[in-house]
């Protein structure tokens, strides 16, 4: 019996099952453009999608980044926090138990850092119990792979010329922003929940983007876009990336976008630990 069918027999009010997996999406031909030919692959914008299926509520979420953040334990922990908070906002409470199904990627999920993070969620009474499980090597095809197949088929038939168009194809995919370096600060947050402004905001890194090559390719292909709006979007996007690559102040401003330190708002919010609701406020000034 597949694991999601097994866990579906558990009471929804006391347990929740989610699966998290990443898709290093083909190199986006300035997103997905089927008309591109003869373009230098190194000049394409590499884009990454992290998928989360919440089996307790039957919904799928996608998180998009342009490789400005490392794909490691920090990526998984930050996205898990965002997903858990979305469940809390939707239901008002969290279930007592959390079951996480992940692949066998040691860089992202199968490591002591993520395991320690799961322990932290129990220690701080975010959940009464957290189960982190992995499928056997060679047998890691789950239902989220079917969701990724649907994405690939959509992009094969439909051009996505900008990030906004990719989000639409993903039915509201979220841009990954406001990351915290939980990995480096785990020792501190185990003993006490930080209050006020966290000191471990994770700065983005745009050095992996071939800005000059991307600009050249966009200019060569400008008349192949559906309209001038997409081309103007790319010019603005490239200009912003260039500015951030040379300005620590702009990098810091980018890092603070949607930077909410969610952990304090998740403590004692399960059906087991009843507490008053709190209004979510930004942990950082934008």
List keywords for this structure.
286 residues; alpha/beta; Nucleotidyltransferase, domain 5; six-stranded mixed sheet; two-stranded antiparallel ribbon; disordered N terminus; disordered C terminus
Q: Count the beta strands.
A: 8
> How many DSSP helices?
10
Round the Cα radius of gyration to an integer and report it.
20 Å
Question: Which strand order do you get reading across the main beta sheet?
Answer: 7-6-1-4-5-8
Q: What is CATH's topology name?
A: Nucleotidyltransferase, domain 5
CATH architectural label: 2-Layer Sandwich
From the helix content, strand content and strand pairing, which structural class follows? Answer: alpha/beta
Q: Beta-strand percentage?
A: 5-15%
Number of domains: 1
Nearest-integer average pLDDT: 75
What is the H/E order? HEEEEEHEHEHHEHHHHH
Overall description:
This protein is 38% helix and 14% strand. With 286 residues, the protein is α/β, with parallel strands linked by helices. It has a single domain, classed as Nucleotidyltransferase, domain 5 (2-Layer Sandwich), CATH 3.30.420. It has a six-stranded mixed β-sheet with strand order 7-6-1-4-5-8, with helices on both faces. Strands 2-3 form a two-stranded antiparallel sheet. It is globular, with a radius of gyration of 20 Å.
Short description:
The chain is α/β, with parallel strands linked by helices. It has ten helices and eight strands.
Secondary-structure blueprint:
Blueprint: H1 3-7, E1 15-23, E2 27-28, E3 45-46, E4 48-54, E5 59-65, H2 73-91, E6 97-102, H3 112-123, E7 129-134, H4 143-157, H5 163-169, E8 174-175, H6 182-191, H7 211-220, H8 228-245, H9 248-255, H10 263-266
Parallel strand pairs: 1-6, 5-8, 6-7
Antiparallel strand pairs: 1-4, 2-3, 4-5
Helix pairs in contact: 3-6, 7-8
């Amino acid at each position: 019996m597949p694991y999601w069918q097994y866990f579906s027999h558990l009471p929804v009010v006391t347990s929740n099952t989610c699966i998290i997996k990443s898709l290093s999406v083909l190199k986006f031909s300035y997103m997905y453009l089927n008309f591109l030919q003869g373009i230098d692959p190194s000049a394409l914008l590499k884009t990454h999608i992290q998928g989360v299926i919440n089996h307790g509520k039957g919904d799928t979420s996608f998180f998009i980044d342009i490789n400005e953040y490392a794909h490691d334990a920090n990526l998984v922990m930050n996205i898990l926090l965002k997903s858990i908070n979305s469940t809390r906002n939707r239901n008002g409470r969290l279930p007592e138990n959390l079951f996480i199904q992940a692949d066998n990627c040691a860089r992202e999920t199968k490591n002591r850092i993520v395991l320690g993070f799961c322990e932290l969620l129990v220690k701080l009474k975010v959940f009464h119990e957290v189960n982190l499980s992995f499928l056997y090597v060679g047998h890691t095809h789950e239902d989220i792979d079917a969701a990724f197949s649907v994405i690939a088929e959509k992009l094969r038939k439909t051009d996505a010329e900008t990030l906004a168009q990719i989000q639409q194809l993903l039915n509201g995919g979220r841009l990954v922003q406001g990351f915290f370096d939980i990995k480096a600060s785990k020792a501190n947050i185990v003993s006490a929940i930080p209050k006020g402004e966290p000191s471990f905001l994770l700065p983005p890194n745009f050095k992996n983007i071939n800005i000059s090559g991307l600009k050249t390719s966009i200019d060569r292909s400008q008349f192949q876009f559906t309209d001038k709006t997409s081309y103007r979007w790319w010019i603005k996007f490239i200009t912003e990336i260039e500015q951030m690559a040379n300005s620590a102040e702009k990098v810091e401003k980018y890092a603070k976008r949607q930077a909410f330190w969610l952990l304090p708002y998740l403590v004692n919010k399960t059906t087991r630990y009843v507490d008053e609701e709190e209004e979510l406020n930004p942990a950082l000034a934008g």
